[in-house]
């Protein structure tokens, strides 16, 4: 599979069963209810994307404006987005194994940077899990250490790391 055969497109409500299926395969240790994905798409559809290889869904990205250094707990409904937001938050980037290593994550990050620019967010943040800290460092993110974050990250597991990328270099 090459990056030419894969493409990102906006997510629609019809994609939610595929999002659930991909999440169940990629994030075994981080399960989230279907309602979480449904709510994120309803709250901020412009930050939700699907990756396809032909007609087959092989990944997704969910992102939205949020509050800096206050990541939502895993598997929790937001209710609303903050106004104003102080970060652009990557809730989840999940790729099936066949989508990895072909530039799909970098292409998704380009979409996030564009969306953050449109929101006038000075930074992009995320919680790195599944031993992904090194990947995110290569994408320009750095660890943000804060004692208050430890409790917020508890639902994500022991290896969770809050990471930030400033937009000044974008």
Strand and helix layout:
Layout: E1 6-10, H1 16-26, H2 34-43, E2 48-53, E3 56-66, E4 87-95, H3 104-118, E5 123-128, H4 133-138, E6 142-143, H5 147-153, E7 161-166
Parallel strand pairs: 4-5
Antiparallel strand pairs: 1-2, 2-3, 3-4, 5-7, 6-7
Largest sheet at a glance? Answer: 7 strands, mixed
Radius of gyration: 15 Å
Estimate the strand proportion.
25-35%
Helical content stands at 25-40%
The SS-based structural class is: alpha+beta
* pLDDT averaged residue by residue: 91
Strand order of the largest sheet: 1-2-3-4-5-7-6
Order of helices and strands: EHHEEEHEHEHE
Work out the number of β strands: 7
Q: DSSP helix count?
A: 5
Would you identify the regions where 5 or more consecutive residues have pLDDT less than 50?
none
Dominant shape: globular
Q: Whole-Å distance between the termini?
A: 29 Å
Detailed description of the structure:
- With 170 residues, the chain is of the alpha+beta class.
- 29% of the residues lie in helices and 26% in strands.
- The chain is built from 5 helices and 7 strands.
- It has helices at 16-26, 34-43, 104-118, 133-138, 147-153, and strands at residues 6-10, 48-53, 56-66, 87-95, 123-128, 142-143, 161-166.
- A 7-stranded mixed beta sheet has the order 1-2-3-4-5-7-6, sandwiched between helices.
- It starts with 5 loop residues before the first strand and ends with a strand.
